[in-house]
Amino acid sequence: MTVTSETTDRVPLVEMRDIRVAFGGVHAVDGVNIDLYRGEVVGLVGGNGAGKTTLIKALSGAHKADSGEIYINGTRATIETPRDAKQYAIETIYQTLALAENIDAPSNMFLGRELQSRWRTLDNRAMENAARRLMGRLNPQFQNLMVPVSSLSGGQRQSVAIARAVHFNAKIMIMDEPTAALGPAETSQVTSLIQQLKAEGIGIFLISHDIHGVFDLSDRISVMLQGKLVGTVNKSEVTKDEVLAMIIMGKLPGTATRTELADLHR
Known about the structure:
The protein is of the alpha/beta class. Helices cover 33% and strands 23% of the residues. The longest helix is centred in the C-terminal third of the chain and has 16 residues, at 184-199.
């Protein structure tokens, strides 16, 4: 079993080359290369302090990389702020979701980018209709469009946050622990949402501590350890224990002994 890389002629949706970020002389991200293709989910995993969050902040514009290059659809991109990231159709769905609790789904979807009528008043009907159409496509089971999002389940709240990103033409989505603290039914709902996003050609970086969730949702898995990329593997070609060995010991698939793999569970 070997670490895999994309060998087709397709141009990556995202390509990050030799990304480096240091804090006070400590390399949080040290020469990392990672890519993402249309309609693909790449799980980004590693222990606390591995560097995965810092790496992805360089893509989202939350923290500028010290060096390295980012390409979007094969073209060199300059990403220094979250606004820059949005210009490249990159949207981030944080674990906190950043929703306004006291307003409904349509109002959240258009928050800060409200639709106006020709009389320069809020066009609530247009926003509601747009929200219904989009939610009908992404999550047909969603029934509570006009209630405050504070009363929604975790899966429904994820739906609202994702719908907001999709409505404003996200092509690259960063999802931070999307199924954290969700029950089985809500996790299934989010899984269906991600499958729909993939079908629409959206590429997703999935940051997670949950190895089981990563296996359920990802096509490829990139593992970081102490700021470096251990490797990227096809999910279908590895076991969970092999990925755990990458996370904990930095050992590539096929290099850890049976004893070492058994020790992961002691």
